[in-house]
Design a protein that fits this description.
There is one protein chain. The protein has 151 residues and is mainly alpha-helical. 37% of the residues lie in helices and 8% in strands. It has six helices and four strands. The longest helix has 21 residues, at 15-35. It is flat and about 55 Å long.
Length: 151
């Protein structure tokens, strides 16, 4: 099981070049794992409010009566994920990708608070409390992959 966020450009490249080139390196490693007959589950990165300039807890504190001000869309909270992009190109029953976007953006809207729980503790990292609420969805997603055993 692996996941990754591209938080800096590749050495000597800008963001545009990084988005084009980074998947190649990830694909090579993922393919090696699959070729070694390993089950591989890639967890796509969570939506990224920081890309839209939102620091979730600060925004919630400032707009506690209008949380819509702190919400976003999957497009506005999108960030590149070269690892997941690479995994999608590997045609193997040993490879699976989990997409947590719906856990943060139900009904197409990315929310700062879900079920009374704040989702992020900054611009990019989910709170431990919200992570705990996701355990059943995560477990169900792992089981749907059909890869390995997760008990």
């Amino acid at each position: 099981i692996t996941s990754e966020r591209q938080s800096t450009p590749l050495e000597g490249m800008d963001w545009e070049e990084t988005e084009k080139k980074a998947p190649e390196g990830h694909r090579e490693i993922l393919q090696r794992w699959v070729d070694a007959d390993l089950d591989v589950v890639v967890i796509r990165d969570t939506p990224y409010p920081g890309g839209a300039g939102v620091t979730v807890p600060d925004c919630v504190a400032k707009h506690e009566d209008d949380l819509e001000e702190c919400s976003g869309t999957p497009e506005s909270w999108h960030w590149m994920d070269p690892l997941a992009a690479s995994a999608k190109t590997i045609d193997s029953k040993k490879m699976s990708v989990i997409y947590p976007q719906d856990w943060f953006c139900p009904e197409g809207r990315c929310e700062p608070v879900i079920g009374g729980v704040i989702t992020y503790f900054d611009t990019a990292h989910i709170t431990a409390t919200y992570a705990q609420t996701l355990a059943p969805q995560f477990d169900a997603s792992l089981r749907k992959t059909g890869l390995g055993t997760f008990d």
